[in-house]
Structures are given as C-alpha cells and as structure tokens.
Design brief:
two-stranded antiparallel sheet, about 170 residues, globular, Glucose Oxidase, domain 1, alpha/beta
Length: about 170
Amino acid sequence: MEFSTSLLCDMYADMIDVAEPLFVSYGGISQFYGSVTTVKCFEHNGLIRQLVAEDGSGKVLLIDGGGSTRRALVDAEIAETAAQNNWEGIIVYGAVRDVDELEEVEIGIQAVASIPVGAEDDDTGEVNIPVNFASVTFLPDDYVYADSTGIILSPEPLDLDEIEEAL
C-alpha cells in the first residue's frame, strides 16, 4: 500500500512521533511499515539472526545498536532471511554491511551507516523492550512507517486508505 510519511505527518501530527533524520535507506524497498519488534544489542547480532528466522508478517524489526558504526549488525544473509520470513523492514540504529547485496533484497532497510566489519555472532542483548534513539521512544507493538523522507512512529495503526486517496 502506498503512503507518504510527509502526508502522514500532516494528517496525524497530534498522534505521531518523528525520528531525527539519521538514517539512510539500504534495502531493495524504500517504503515499509508495520508493528514494531525491538531488539537491543551492541555489536552482537545473534539475537537479530534468531528474530529474522521467525515469521515477520506485518512487522518491522527495530534494532537499537547504540548507534555504533564500528561493526555491522545486519548483513546480506540476515536481510535475505528476514525477507524470506516476510519481515516488512529493518531499522538499525547502527551499521550494516554488504550494501550492494542489500539493495537487491526485497525488504526495507534503514541504518545510520555502513561498514565492512561484521558484528560478533552471539546472542547478547534484549528483545521486546522499550528503546530510545533519534529522539523517539519505540515500544514493542507500536507502528512504524518509513520511506525516503523519514521515519515516524504511532501507538496505533494509521489509516493508510486516506493517504492512498490523497496520493
């Protein structure tokens, strides 16, 4: 379904939060939305690998990597697994790698930066907890909407049918 974060901001200004513009799009899809699943991990991606192996239909994986750009939390293998398991997108407050390959994967991916160094492959971290970055607190089961313009967050799903009519 088509939407625009700019129009969503105009229509729902009183019920959304807007993330600071820190993110770059790396995935094969530039527009995505869904219910938030959070993971907090610092330079370790074992929990991320576990989560993307689960069914992600209607969900966006939101990764709080502490903003670290020293190690990539998402690589092509993780992105491909997420796409195969129907995740709508991945937002990384941290880095990704395999950028050319990520562009070919049919999933939305936004991250702070890219770096060729991979993360440690252990399961250090926490899942489905509130996380805060980019001046927004993301809660599990909130709804996130991302496109080339930005990332917005709502506690409830937004009516995208109204947006499609405006487009």
